[in-house]
Structure formats: C-alpha cells, structure tokens
Amino acid sequence: QVSLVESGGGLVQAGGSLRLSCTASGRTLRPYAMGWFRQAPGKEREFVAGISWLSGRTTYADSVKGRFTISRDNAETTVYLQMNMLKPEDTAVYYCAARRGVGIVTTLQDYDYWGQGTQVTVSS
Fold first, then answer.
1. Residue 102 pLDDT greater than 90, yes or no
2. Where is pLDDT greater, at 103 or 118?
3. Closest C-alpha to 64, from 34, 85, 79
4. Which of 56, 3, 8, 51 is nearest to 28 (CA)?
5. Cα dist. 10→16, 33, 57, 91, 92 in Å?
6. How far, in Å, CA of 36 to CA of 26, rounded?
7. Which of 24, 26, 50, 92 fits as disulfide partner to 40, beta carbons 3.0 to 4.6 Å?
8. Any residues with CB less than 8 A from the CB of 19 and at least 6 apart, and which?
C-alpha cells in the first residue's frame, strides 16, 4: 500500500505564501500520478493541481493558475505545492492524492490513495 503524509499547512495573511509537501512511501508501486485537492468548510472536495508520472506535465484549477505550482523531487518520493499570493478563499484542508497510472486525472473518485490533509488558513 502507498502511504501519503502531508505537511506545511498553517496560518498566513492574504498575499503570503506557503509550501505544502507530500511524502509517499511505497514508491515501488509505480507508475503513479499525483494530485492535490482541497476542501473548504461546507464545500465539496475539489481538484487543485496534478502532475503526471513520467513527463512531469502539470495541470491546475482555474482558480489557482498563476499562483500555485506543483512539483516533485528527483527521487519521486515527495510532491510539493507552492502557493503564492494566497487569498482568504484558498482557506481549506489540502489533501495529497495518488493513483496508479501515468496521466493526470482531475476527478477524486479515480484516485487510489489519500493523505490525512493539512489545514491552510488565509486571513484577510
């Protein structure tokens, strides 16, 4: 089984930055694509960013384009989400997810593994 652990959440003022990390164990269970989702209070969990297994191609939700960047380390063990110019509407629990496969998928039901989530709170 693949285990995912997120870190890096916290409280930040609007306009500030945070960098989330997701460390995966069971790295031999490949190929797998990675994604970030978030869930705000009273809202459904939504796709934020994804990265493919081999090419490193990325995709983003329209709401975060130009502000967030997803990346992975060279060993393919950790995935990051750099969040800049944060807004109060970015406040949510952020979840790391992984799926067996190469390509990016934006629908949460297609992901096989999930982290516990990390809270991001942006004050105005």
1. no
2. 118
3. 85
4. 3
5. 11, 26, 28, 10, 10
6. 18
7. 92
8. 8, 80, 81, 82, 83
Tokens of 121: 């709170």
DSSP strand pairing (92-100 vs 46-51)? unpaired
57-85 burial code (b ≥16 CB/10 A, e <16)? eebbbeebeeebebebeeeeebbbbebee
Give the chain's length.
124
Residues in CB range of 56: below 8 A, 6 or more apart: 72
Backbone φ and ψ for 27, nearest 5 degrees, come out as -65, -15
* 3-25 mean pLDDT: 95
Q: Which residues of 12-34 are buried (b: 16+ CB within 10 A; e: fewer)?
A: beeeeebebbbbbeeeeeeebbb
Tokens of 32: 């797998």
